[in-house]
Amino acid sequence: MKNFLNYNNPKTFRSLLFLSSFLFCLAGCKGGEKKPSVVKENYFEASEDAKLATINSLSSTDVYGRSFGEGDVTSSDRKVGMFYFIWHGEHVQNGIFNVTELKKTNPEALWDINADPTISRTSDFHYFSEPLYGYYCSDDPWVITRHVELLTMMGVDYISFDLTNFALYEKNSAAIFDVLLKYQAQGWKIPLVTSILNGTSVEANHDQRIASYYNTFYKDPKYDSLWLRDPETNKPIITISIDQYYDKLPLEVRQNIKFYNTIWPYDEGQTTYDDLSWLDWEYPQTEYINSKGTLMNVSVAQHCDGSFGTSVNPEMNKYPSKNRGRGYNYETKKNESENAFKGTNLETQWSNVFNSERGIDEVFVTGWNEWIAYKLPYASLHPGVDNPPYDKNTTVDFCDTCDEEYSRDLEMTKGGYGDNFYLQNTRLTRKFKSSNIVKYFGSYATQNLRNYDWQNARTYEDFVGDAMERNFARADKSGVFYTNNTNRNDIASTKVSNDKNNLYIQIQTKDNIVIDETTNNNLNLLLSVDGSNAADWNGYNFILNTEPMTAPEGTTDISAFKPNSFEHEEVGRATYVRNGNTISLCIPLTSLGLTSDDFTIDFKVADGISDPSDIMNYYIDGDSAPIGRLNYRYNSTHR
Question: Among 104, 190, 209, 325, whose CB has the most other CB atoms within 10 angstroms?
Answer without folding.
Answer: 325
